[in-house]
């Protein structure tokens, strides 16, 4: 029996208006629609089996995608050309691609730590600072659960 070989993408979405939050299902459906638009029925059918959003954090704007190894180029090019998400201008940065979700988790932790330290250096009210620290701690607890 041969195991399924997947690739995991660590990505960040950048939106100009921070007013809208997205769910994993919204992100999954939008990327599938974009694959349908760019690659037609062929591309959509190829990624359908193994494509999944493994992690999404709306505070840090990071997400992890899983896709079959053979079709990673379809997702890669779709993410690069994605510029709208439910009518909101958006850009997606691919921060890494790995064969294991553990490596994506390690990179996400490293990026989150840098992001939190950078934000906490700025002057801000204590309530906002406490909210950021709480969200960071929750994210640190959630990340190891996706590898299990």
TrEMBL record:
UniProt record similarity statement: Belongs to the eukaryotic/archaeal RNase P protein component 2 family.
InterPro entries (UniProt xref): Pop5/Rpp14/Rnp2-like, RNase_P/MRP_POP5
Source species of the chain: Paramecium primaurelia
Record protein name field: Ribonuclease P/MRP protein subunit POP5
GO CC field: ribonuclease P complex
GO terms classed as biological process: tRNA 5'-leader removal
Pfam families recorded: RNase_P_Rpp14
Keyword rRNA processing on entry: yes
Functional description taken from the UniProt entry: Component of ribonuclease P, a protein complex that generates mature tRNA molecules by cleaving their 5'-ends.
Keyword set, alphabetical order: rRNA processing, tRNA processing
């Amino acid at each position: 029996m041969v195991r399924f070989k997947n690739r995991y993408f660590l990505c960040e979405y950048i939106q100009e208006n921070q007013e809208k939050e997205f769910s994993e299902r919204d992100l999954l459906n939008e990327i599938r629609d974009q694959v349908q638009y760019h690659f037609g029925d062929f591309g959509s059918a190829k990624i359908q089996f193994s494509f999944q959003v493994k992690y999404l954090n709306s505070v840090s704007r990071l997400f992890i995608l899983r896709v079959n190894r053979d079709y990673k180029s379809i997702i890669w090019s779709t993410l690069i050309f994605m510029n709208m998400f439910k009518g909101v201008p958006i850009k997606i940065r691919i921060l890494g691609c790995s064969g294991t979700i553990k490596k994506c988790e390690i990179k996400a932790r490293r990026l989150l730590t840098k992001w939190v330290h950078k934000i906490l250096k700025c002057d801000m009210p204590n309530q906002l600072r406490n909210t950021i620290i709480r969200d960071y701690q929750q994210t640190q607890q959630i990340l190891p659960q996706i590898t299990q």
